[in-house]
Amino acid sequence: GVTFHAKLGTQGERVERIKRLAEELAPIVGADPALARRAAVLAKADLTTEVVGEFPELQGAMGRKYALLQGEHASVAAAAEEHYKPQGPSDRVSSDPVSITVALADKLDTLVGFWAIDEKPTGSKDPYALRRAALGVVRILVENDIRLALAS
Predict the structure, then answer these.
(1) Is 124 a member of any domain?
(2) Using alpha carbons only, how large is the chain's radius of gyration in Å?
(3) What is the pTM of this model?
(4) What total of structural domains would you count in the chain?
(5) How far apart are CA 49 and CA 146, in angstroms?
(6) Given pLDDT bands bounded at 50, 70 and 90, which one contains residue 149?
(7) Quick one: pLDDT at residue 66?
(8) Is residue 105 part of a domain?
(9) CB within 8 A of 78, min separation 6: which ones?
(10) Which residues touch 147 (CB under 8 Å, ≥6 apart)?
(11) Domain span holding position 30
(12) Strand-pair partners of 10
């Protein structure tokens, strides 16, 4: 498989973790668990395509296109693109429960994984964009009025 990070496994293992987290988060967020699971499975599928390899800025947008072309549910397709958001302070936060579920699962997996292998941001160094992931989690929860115990 394609390596995600030497200490955190392959993209396939990462997607499996995101899928399990999405299954747990779906009822809290109010998402259909089957759609959240399917969206998590497809969330990173476009990363292995030639288009995204050549034009990385299209990641997510191509995932949505591919999902729609293969007849996936609209929420599953939307999550393929929206789970990357917010990327910055001007990015809008999704209000679609499936997108929210996968975005939270993805960002929480990233944060927990890199913290677990002691790859925390220091000063000006944040090579894995962990600050952006943490701010994304907070914005998603606050802007969608979701109460989630992050300690559990």
Answers:
(1) yes
(2) 15
(3) 0.94
(4) 1
(5) 34
(6) confident
(7) 97
(8) yes
(9) 64, 94, 96, 98, 99
(10) 141
(11) 3-143
(12) 3
